């Protein structure tokens, strides 16, 4: 049975929440293999001059450890 590890990361995007998630996975994938899932824990939106300027999120990334 594989062991699964969970890390918490913070990511952001000026485009969308979806893009922030993609950024989190892309960055984590540079050093982590076997990513299985992403759980979005919290979402935050930055506002400037009455308009959304960027999207931020805290997420947990789960991955299987190699045996």
Descriptive account of the structure:
It is a single chain. A hairpin with a 2-residue loop joins strand 2 (35-48) and strand 3 (51-64). This protein has a 3-stranded antiparallel sheet, with helices on one face. It is elongated and about 50 Å long. Helix content is 19%, strand content 57%. The longest helix has 13 residues, at 17-29. It is built from 1 helix and 3 strands. The chain has one domain (4-64): Flavin-binding protein dodecin (Dodecin subunit-like), CATH 3.30.1660. The model has no long low-confidence stretch (mean pLDDT 95). The protein is α+β, with helices and mostly antiparallel strands.
Topology:
Blueprint lengths: L3 E10 L3 H13 L5 E14 L2 E14 L3
Antiparallel strand pairs: 1-3, 2-3
The radius of gyration computed from the alpha-carbon positions, rounded to a whole number of angstroms, is 14 Å
Strands ordered across the widest β-sheet: 1-3-2
Number of domains: 1
- The ordered H/E elements are EHEE
